Task: structure prediction
Amino acid sequence: MTKYSGFFYSKDGGKTGKYVDLEDALSSLNNYADFKDKYGNMIYCPECHKAILFLTINTKKHPFLRKKPTSEHEVGCSKIYESGSLKETSEYIEHLTDDQIKNKVNSMFANLFGPKSTDRGSGSDNTGSTPKNGSPFSFGISTDKSIRRSFRVRSLKSYIDQDDDKDKVYLIYGKAKLSVLTQTAKKSGNEYDLLEVDPQDKYHHVYRIYLGKHDERNIDPNSQYKVLFIGKYNFNFKYYKEIEENGEKKGIRVWNFELINNNLQALKYEKCN
Result:
């Protein structure tokens, strides 16, 4: 089952419209009936703008989007393919040079954060355009290039399910404030760095990405960045970060995240203009 962290909202069959983050849509409404009243049958695949989506409500799981069975994606849309497993994605990245990984990440980054298009054919989870040779969010597996898989793309705001998200590779993207935290390993006493990614929104969680000893001192903690990273969650540790909100102290969840194959090329960020 393909997950969508958002959808293309269109009143004219997907020709024109705008991208809407699912968590933003859910949090701005009082109930799921309001969601149906507002968006109805006007939600489409965020990548190809052709396939019709609908909201699935399950009492045991957080609401999620699915494709209408009678609707189809545009040719070349990455959502056509099954999501790559941890093994398939790791092997794909392993067989690429650092320059090839960088080019792949740059292509996806430009697609996600490039000038927004309101026309059908815009790519990724919200922006850009799908190239003729296919979406940058799909790849051929190392054992058989004719078999294609897709990256699981989700926004920084997306709901996280520890049972469902374990041992799966995700491409996470969004806008956030960044900061570098230097830690000391208890056993060895060696220092290492973590990149903290804080969306600073009502969802109240932050990501921390292991960098090892890597110089990221050019980061301005007071600025907002566009950020993209690929890897998997590490649910073995449970942390909370203490913040002050409206004069009261509270804890927000810290999600530990490991870059795919521990490759720093799977991380990209740029300061927002």
About this structure: The mean pLDDT is 88. Residues 91 and 128 are 27 Å apart (CA to CA). The radius of gyration is 19 Å. Residues 98-113 form the longest helix (16 residues).
